[in-house]
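Hey, quick one: can you model this chain's 3D structure?
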Amino acid sequence: MWICSYILPNLGTCSGTRPTMNLLLLLSALGVVYSYAFYPLILRLFREGEPFVPSTPAAWPKASIIVTAHNEEHRIREKLENALAIDYPADQIEIIVASDCSTDQTDAIVESFGGNIRLVRADQHLGKEYAQLCAIREARGEILIFSDVATQIPTDAIQKMVSYFSDPRVGAVSSEDRFISDDGKVAGEGAYVKYEMWLRALESRRAGLVGLSGSFFACRKEICEGWDTQSPSDFNTALRTARAGLSAISCPDVLGYYKDIKDPNKEYQRKVRTVIRGITSISRHPDVLDIGEHGLFSFQVWSHKIMRWAVPWFMLLTSLFTLIGLGHSPLANLFALGQVIFYGIAFVGWKIPSARDHTLVRLIFFFVQVNLSIADACIQFARGKRMTVWTPSKR
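Sure thing. Here's the predicted structure for all 395 residues.
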């Protein structure tokens, strides 16, 4: 400890150690931007596979839409009416509502529809994935389509989605996300959503997605064998697809519409929950990190997931090395100025919500908020927190 207490304060003052401090500062800054900037550039260096071209099958395969619900009496009717309006041969599609032991009128509303809408009620309240497993066991479809209650599906989306499975290389298909504003209009895509969809397109053309849109995706039924009820279904499906030697792809013409969460606190908690569940998945399936076994797919998991979860810690290291070198290194002085401006803008975005109407303020505030939630999630996970059961955020 006495060595650290001597070295850290003097790291930036000793002429011999200044290059070392500058190198550590640059490496920590590289860790911050790697997942967002350098990973996509590296990914582009890998050869693209043959494009996945959808084609209309001679006969549409049997498809099962699985909607998971827990106490959704205020939204389930609208969801089922949306599902019934889907353009797909009526004798080749079924709609299953997987009720996670709802205690309100959700089950009664589902049963009132009759027809090809079936209720499958979980025998225990064990979370979304367990309810999905109960529905998977009852599903008759070759293609299983998972959709959240809050997600609205265009009438032609299922045919578009299923047509991609005409390619035998495809194991799973993810929708792309679109937001609906309070007045019911499709809101403009945020910069983050545009970036994520662009990154998904890159991954689709290489080793496949490392995560699907959990609110709306499809897969072959055989991919669901060995369904992990402790891992989020979007990552679990991507992983099992890769293990099967197939590809999980993102399709820009298959859209899922849902309302954004307006309450910042609820959005923050949603992000924390998402990261905790993601880390849980990796901890339960560590082989996914073995590049020798899974090749490029593992590299994508490292770059897209692990390195992104490490960003808040790299941000902390960047600040630490900046403070150590402040006044002794021009590079550290430059970094200090940049961080004062950066975090100052984030602070303004936090204290003055209307300031987020400015694109730069909104992006910086969002970036800081996301990484605070990641750090929070990592700490909670380290303390033993796991999340398989929760109440979905109201949109």
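One thing worth noting: The longest strand covers residues 247-259.
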